[in-house]
Design goal:
12 helices; TIM Barrel; nine-stranded mixed β-sheet; three-stranded antiparallel β-sheet; alpha/beta; 360 residues; Enolase-like, domain 1
Length: 360
């Protein structure tokens, strides 16, 4: 089965108001579609920094497309290696994003041809995975809005809720976490995400106080490149440390595993090079006894989390739901996200959404 065509479409649209740090924040999404005969597969990557999607599209169209078209679509390892070598001197950055979109599309194509969900195509460990609510905790919210959004997510059947901190003084951040904990009660899973906004001393001060509130994990308190600082924090923190959305290779995750620098790893398939690299990262984590809790993109990650033995939970983040057919939205039941039974990732872009937000 040969790849006959690779299309790349760039979309730009406002981020959800519930997750914006700035009133005019936007997201750029690159949709990659590979075609082979009557079959097609869809991949995706994204950028929340202006111009990121334009750069990724240029890489796909001018550097990577010639390496993919004409190749056997089943040879994902060979194609991935060729794309990696062609972009290696650029560093990971946008190169990993571009590779991810294409690699995801190839895996989607293979599973669609087989007529099975990607979770099953990859081996299938389970048919449902715990899910928590995310993407509804803007720093612009006052405490009452933050609490209302947290309650709404629990009412939708999600197992837990994640809130964001780091844009306010430490004491105020702690008060916001306490308010959500009191509103949800002691049994709901509550995660706290700092988006790399704290210093090590801040994180060391806050971690035991979060533990007193029963926080399930403390996510990305520091810049993800500071592995040594994370190792120190992880040794001292009474609340588990989660990190990974900004790491872009199995080598980066392996460094965290070797140094005991995190308790939970959070790879993002669209940021790190696609399904091929994600599976290797999951294996690295499994060998170290570490769980995987994928970041963002639940529509894609539900399949990967269901296919590996060490998945912990998936992040239900509705930012991109509008891009796909309404009937394809993931079902959540009694705290679990169910694996969709459509072939591949089971996602079809809505033509009207593509037309409205497409960047020429």
């Amino acid at each position: 089965m040969r790849v006959e065509r690779l299309d790349a479409q760039l979309l730009r649209f406002p981020m959800l108001a519930s997750h914006r740090d700035q009133p005019d924040a936007q997201m750029e999404v690159l949709l990659a579609t590979v075609h082979a005969g009557d079959h097609w597969g869809l991949g995706l990557t994204f950028s929340v920094q202006p111009g990121g999607g334009v750069a990724v599209r240029a890489l796909v169209e001018h550097v990577l497309r010639p390496l993919v078209v004409g190749q056997n679509a089943y040879h994902t390892e060979r194609i991935w290696a060729a794309m990696y070598q062609a972009t290696h001197r650029l560093g990971r950055g946008i190169a990993a994003l571009a590779i991810a979109a294409i690699d995801m599309a190839l895996w989607d194509l293979k599973a669609r041809v087989a007529g099975v969900p990607l979770a099953d195509y990859l081996g299938g460990c389970r048919d449902r995975v715990l899910a928590y609510g995310s993407g509804r905790s803007s720093h612009q919210f006052d405490v009452s809005e933050l609490v209302a959004q947290a309650r709404a997510q629990r009412a939708e059947g999600l197992d837990g809720v994640k809130i964001r901190v780091g844009a306010r003084p430490l004491a105020e951040d702690l008060a916001r976490v306490r308010a959500v904990r009191e509103a949800l009660g002691p049994d709901a899973r509550l995660m706290v995400d700092a988006n790399e906004r704290y210093t090590l001393s801040d994180a060391l001060w806050l971690a035991p106080r979060l533990a007193e509130l029963g926080v399930y994990w403390f996510e990305e308190p520091l810049d993800a490149e500071h592995v040594d600082a994370y190792a120190l924090l992880a040794r001292q923190s009474p609340v588990p440390i989660a990190v990974g959305e900004h790491l872009q290779s199995r080598h980066a995750f392996a460094a965290y595993a070797r140094q005991g620098a995190a308790h939970i790893l959070q790879p993002d398939v669209a940021m790190l090079g696609g399904v091929t690299e994600f599976l290797k990262i999951a294996a690295v984590a499994d060998a170290a006894g570490l769980p995987i809790a994928p970041h963002f993109l639940h529509q894609f990650h539900i399949h990967l989390a269901a296919a590996i033995p060490n998945s912990l939970i998936v992040e239900h983040f509705p930012a991109l739901d509008f891009l796909f057919l309404p009937e394809e939205r993931c079902e959540v039941r009694e705290g679990y996200m169910l694996v969709p039974r459509r072939p591949g990732f089971g996602l079809t872009p809505r033509p009207e959404a593509v037309a409205e937000y497409r960047v020429p």
